[in-house]
Amino acid sequence: MNNRIELIDRHVWWWMNWRGFVPVIILATLAGRLFMAYLVQNVPVSDSAAYHQFAIWLAEGRGYLDLRTQQPTAYWPVGYPAFLAFFYWLFGPNVMVGEMANAGLSALVMWLCYDISRRLFRCEKAARLLLLILACYPAHWFFSMILASEMLALTLVLIVIDLSMRRGVHIALACGVAAGLAMLVKPQTVAVAGICWMFSFGYHGWHLTSFRHWARIIVIYMVVAVFVMPWVMRNQQQLDAWIPVSTNSGINIYIGNNPEASGTYQEVPRLKEFLAMDDEVARDKLAWKEAREYIQHHPLETLSRLPSKLVSLYFRENSGSFEEGKGYSWFWQGLDKKVVTTNRDLVVWFKEVSNFYYYILALLSWFGLVVLIWRERIHFFLNGQAIPISAVLWFTLIYLVFFGTSRFHFLMMPLLAMYATAFLARYVGSGLEERKPATVPD
Predict the structure, then answer these.
(1) Measured between alpha carbons, how far is 312 from 307 in angstroms, rounded to an integer?
(2) Which pLDDT score is estimated for 439?
(3) Cβ atoms of residues 283 and 250 within 8 Å
(4) How many Cβ atoms sit within 10 Å of the Cβ of residue 67?
(5) Which of 74, 144, 198, 338 could be stapled to 103 by a disulfide with Cβ–Cβ 3.0 to 4.6 Å?
């Protein structure tokens, strides 16, 4: 029995050691997701419907307009609608075009995760295991087939992290552009470049007095400011206010900090009153004011909601299924696009599989992180391996200030999964040749 297990183990690792493994896995996953985008008819609702309409108007040259008033708006971050608009301008305003663009991003996400993992952990086996995990991860299939900003935001965050491990002025400029784009998709990603900079000293020692290291982060954020400035100027001209990205932060912090807050998204009556206001700048300021006053006058109630926000953020993987609870309309169609059927049992089954996959991955990730910190001690914080968890903790802190929902942890799971595969690569299997990347030049 042991000999048979060893034989299977040897063959599995031999397959993973094959030189064509990485491109084949990525291309096969991309082909599968493109095929699913073709087979599954998605009727966009909620956020997806909004992104779709924004992109149509941008592609037509009408500008970025509010859905209700059709006046210039900055309520939603413009990054993802602008991304969709580019493809709509090229190929026409078809939902499938946006879904296939997201599928393409998912392939780029896989390669970036592979490259970051092998550089941070100096382990080819761990990086290839990560590819397998992402290829099978239900949430990544889901978000590659709907019009949602998560896949674009994740791609840009990973680009920032990947570029942070390289050197050169042109690399710093490219990192700034990627960080600026990420900020226009999800404003909370703006800190990722700084987090990477803090822990990238480990490649060269803690040269805190080195002008090059300080100049690098200054250049990156100067590029971010220059890149975002046209959008800020547009908002000042159209809305008569200096708005860095969007005007929905007040609404979002009020959702998580009001007398009826539950820790997750909830449409309380006061929220509906806010959304009925036509002046989005005044609405944003008023929502911020009421949320801030509630926090100041009810500090204990605010703190007591932190556990429920954390649970809402991490407890389930509802966004990784084909039914999110608020009603993405999904239909399985035959190749001839004529036979339309729905299978509720299949939806429920897939939802439970998604949650099971998520739980196993999350447990392995946190356990692998603890093992790695215990083994590396202080060196964990000096060689860049702290970058993924630091980004995760940053995003978690932001959502604890606002509110939690399972969709928000999508950005964090590939970063956490790097610790799971680093653990598995060390303690599971054998025989995979290590191809350590070259040391980053000074």
Answers:
(1) 9
(2) 40
(3) yes
(4) 13
(5) 144
HSE-up (13 A, CA, CB side) for residue 259: 4
Q: What is the DSSP letter of 335?
A: T
Rounded to two decimals, the pTM is 0.86
Tokens of 159: 């680009």
> Which residue's entry shows tokens 């039914």?
323
Structure tokens at 374: 């215990």
How does pLDDT run across 392-442, given as a tens digit for each residue? 999 999 999 998 888 889 999 999 999 999 888 876 654 444 444 434 433
Distance CA 352, CA 409 (A): 18
Measured from the Cβ of residue 213, the count of other Cβ atoms closer than 10 Å reads 16
Q: Is the dihedral of CA 181, 182, 188, 191 positive or negative?
A: negative
d(CA 167, CA 358): 35
Q: What is the pLDDT of residue 289?
A: 92
With beta carbons less than 8 A apart as the criterion, state whether 416 and 392 touch.
Answer: yes
SS3 405: coil
Bridge partners, 41 (sequence order): 331
Task: Annotate 352-361 with b (16+ C-beta within 10 A) or e (fewer).
Answer: eebbebbeeb
Cβ neighbours of 31 (radius 10 Å)? 12
CB of 440 closer than 8 Å to CB of 384: no
DSSP summary character for residue 386: T
Residue 332: its H or E element: strand 329-333
pLDDT tens readout for residues 246-267: 998 889 999 989 888 888 888 8
Residue bearing tokens 């083994």: 375
* Nearest C-alpha neighbor of 41 from the set 271, 329, 251, 368: 329
Instruction: For residue 329, give the H/E element and its range.
Output: strand 329-333
Question: 142: which 2 tokens?
Answer: 């889901």
CA distance 246 to 228: 12
Q: Exposure of 2 by Cβ count < 10 A (0-12 exposed, 13-18 middle, 19+ buried)?
A: exposed
Closest to 164 measured CA to CA, from 106, 217, 111: 217
Tokens read off for 382:
């000096």
pLDDT of residue 405: 86
Asked if 299 and 305 count as a contact pair (C-beta separation under 8 A), the reply is: no
